[in-house]
Amino acid sequence: MTAIEGARARVAALRAELERHDHAYYVLDAPTVPDAEYDRLFQELQALETAYPELQSPDSPTLRVGGRPSSELAAVPHALPMLSIHTETDTTDQGAASFDGRVRRALGLSESAPPVVYAAELKFDGLAINLRYEQGVLVQAATRGDGSTGEDVTPNVRTLRRIPLRLRGAPPPVLEVRGEIYMRRDDFQRLNASQAAAGQKVFVNPRNAAAGSLRQLDPAITAKRPLSFFAYGLGEVKGWAMPPSHSEVLDALAAFGLPVCEHRCRADGPEGLARFHRDMAALREALPFDIDGVVYKVDRLDLQQALGFVSREPRWAVAHKYPAQEVATRLLGIDVQVGRTGAVTPVARLEPVFVGGVTVTNATLHNQGEIDRKDVRVGDWVVVRRAGDVIPEVVGSIAERRESELPRYDLLEAIKHVCPECGSHVVRGEDEAVARCTGGLYCPAQCKQALLHFAGRRAVDVDGLGEQIVNQLVSAGIVRTPADLYDRDRVNQEVLAGLERMGEKSAANLLAAIDTSRDTSLARFIFGLGIRNVGETTAKDLARHFGKLGHFLEADEAALLEVSDVGPVVAHCILDFLAEPHNREVIAALQRAMRWQETEPAARPEAGALSGKKVVLTGSLPSLSRDEATALIEAAGGKVVGSVSKKTDYVVAGSDAGSKLEKAQQLGITILDEDGLRRLLSPADALASDGQRLLFGA
Ligand code: IVH
């Protein structure tokens, strides 16, 4: 065998193997080899084709990475015109009934004749493509164009690994396959994220992204875009004994190795069609790609033939739409809303449009970062999306329809850095997309959330003060800030007993619980303030470090940074919160209403038995609750941390301890049971403790 013969055989074997792997991976969703092995085979084939250019062929998988760019897409006349399809705009069941009625009349069926059998499938929201296979090899791919002439996108389509370059089985000499090129929603999100990160154009929706990606002059760009494909029909066919029905044609296309969507069925009469329409509507949100309706086709091909066409539309098929999820409208203005967490959200005021089945006049713009990314300006035409129960959003502006230069929108400037709800300052951290109101304790938009947090079990713990009561107290204007809870002119037996679903007894209990909560700890109090990024642990660190509320309130950035685990981000959140006079007023009022133990910072219990030690709690202890154990450990100067690492000093394990205990054993960390912990903490033993003695199970 000569060198070229050897190469030829190897090239054929490599192509066959790569094709099998592509089919398994892209069509069957069942990968057969690891990526690295695939890459090795691919590179070997590329090397052989470079060494022997005469072995190059139109069905080589190496073409999938994109060939050389062209200066324009060439025109391709379609052997059979690519027709459009009649759209049934009545989105109710009546849409299916009207179509069935037209079909029955055209076929001259009497009322007593059995139901017509249809093939029902999804209407994919992408762009139509014609794939021409000759002797089973993909030789040309063309867009629909005007229906008679399309654009040649062959090199681009060869980069789609879901589209076979060579059909499997025994395909006919000429087979044109028609279908839809589309982009999955998750692929679209990822593509847009990477486009934005690279400062490149972002797309408004998956369909535009698919069209833009396919109609590239440089196929290497298409190769990098995540395009998908479903086959749904035929163009020119020669030398094939066609199956008798459309359903079976699709089965045959799947057997040739083409992707055919699994969501299709044979449906009997208008009831069967309407059921499919409803079933797919229910599935719509869960599908990984966009559809804008379903398509019904008379299943028998001989009946299709008999029905024929009217004005370039087949009589045997119809698209039955769903309410559009995306429409264009005018952006009249931008309002702002303050959320429960203080996030200041820009909201688009729109010229009313019907989208996703309802009339929409407002849609979220999310935040300043999104406004910038989508380049949305007041006065623009924008695309509004409402899918399922999701809040309507502005997905982008239509820059081409901007008639004159419009100013960029700056949220902070528009509100003059002041919260429209409470007049507190609004800040946007560096590298943060979201702007926030700093009046956490005072702002009416945030007060329900603030009250619930303050009264929470891990904060000052007002037993029985839940969402329902907070809602009533706030809505009736009785309480606005946590300090109001302790004001007996506002909250008293009479007022509480007057609330819905509150008897005399529960009112008395709640009042008692509010009074009990006056006795708290500084750590709980600080946590209860609800400062952004100040969780329970940080609040404890702050309380221990500063000892007195006064010291904490006076701390500057440098002082805050001295606290263990407080970094610049947390420090700024604290400073922003305390800089707000409204918050200071509420804190002052609370200071008068409540009491907690204060210590001088010097008297911090640094010298406890667990001073500076990191302890992990796992499993349930026989007598101590998790909170009690934490309190004991912290009182002894230790810190309870969540996960076991080399830096962990002790693991306290109870029953049903799982992976944390295992990990501690692997790392050789000292493990204690509850008794061990107690002995470690009792001063007599602590003196003598060397840890080892306290080990259990060792
Ligand atoms: S059949 C002669 N089936 O909808 C009938 N079209 O005007 C040819 N489409 O842009 C179309 N999903 O690309 C058919 N399951 C489906 C479809 C589908 C989407 C698109 C098609 C064309 C438009 C029809």
Explain what you see.
By secondary structure, the chain is α+β, with helices and mostly antiparallel strands. It folds into five domains: 3-56, Helix Hairpins; 86-321, D-amino Acid Aminotransferase, Chain A, domain 1 (2-Layer Sandwich); 326-414, OB fold (Dihydrolipoamide Acetyltransferase, E2P) (Beta Barrel); 438-604, 5' to 3' exonuclease, C-terminal subdomain (DNA polymerase, domain 1, Orthogonal Bundle), CATH 1.10.150.20; 614-685, 3-Layer(aba) Sandwich (Rossmann fold). The protein has 26 helices and 26 strands. The strands form seven sheets. Strands 14, 15, 16, 17, 18, 19 and 20 form a seven-stranded antiparallel β-sheet that branches. Strands 2-13-10-3-9 form a five-stranded mixed β-sheet. Strands 5-4-7-8 form a four-stranded antiparallel β-sheet. A hairpin with a 7-residue loop joins strand 19 (426-427) and strand 20 (435-437). The longest helix has 25 residues, at 3-27. The radius of gyration is 35 Å and the shape is elongated. Residues 684-698 have low confidence and may be disordered. The site of 2-(butylsulfanyl)adenosine has 14 residues, from strand 3 and strand 8.
Features:
binds 2-(butylsulfanyl)adenosine; 36% helix; disordered C terminus; alpha+beta; D-amino Acid Aminotransferase, Chain A, domain 1; single chain; OB fold (Dihydrolipoamide Acetyltransferase, E2P); elongated; 5 domains; 698 residues; Helix Hairpins
